[in-house]
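Narrative of activities, Objective 1.

The group set out to show that a structural description can be obtained from nothing but a protein's sequence at a throughput compatible with the screening campaign. Below is one input-output pair from the validation batch, recorded exactly as produced.
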Amino acid sequence: MLIRLKDQYDEKSWEEFVATYRQYIYNVVRRMELNHHDALEIVQLVLIKLWKKLPDFSYDNYRGKFRNWLYTVTANQVRDFLRGKNLSLSKIPDSSAELDKSISIPEIEEIAEKEWKTYISNLAWEKVKKHFSEGVCRAFLMSIEGQGVEKISEELGVSESSIYVYKKRVQDRLQEEIAYLNSEFG
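Output recorded for this entry:
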C-alpha cells in the first residue's frame, strides 16, 4: 500500500490507507488527552500531512516500523495544534529535552504499541467473525470475558467439548489474521 501511495492521486490506495489508519491515529491522539473534536481536527491535519509526505516517503525496515513514523508525525501535529491554540504543552512538551523529562521514550513507544495491538486486534476480529456462526462467535466472546465452559455450554446448548473446539478455531484464525495485518500494515 505504501508503494502505491507514491502516486498521490491513486484514490483507491488513499481510501484504503485512510480506512486502515484513521482510527489508529484518532486513538493515539485521544491518548494524549485531547477532546473528541480537537482529535478529529488533528486526524484531518495528520492525514493531509501524510498525503503530502507519502509520495516522498521511503520505507526502511531497518529504521523501524511505519507505525512508529506515523506516531511521530501524529505527535508533532498535536504539538503544532496546541501551539496554534495557545494551549498548555504540559502533557505534550515542545522540545525533545522536555519530552524526555516528562515522558520517557519507552513510555511513548509503549503507548503507540498498546494502541496498535488494540487496533489490530479489533480490526482482525471484525474480519474473522464473518467466517463463523453467531453461536461460535458468542461462545468465543463469552470465554474471553471469563465465563466458564460449563456455563457457556449451558447457555448456548452445546457440549463443553464443542466450546473448546470453537474457542481454538477462533483463536487460531484470529492469530493468523493479526499476523497478516501486522505484516501488511505494521
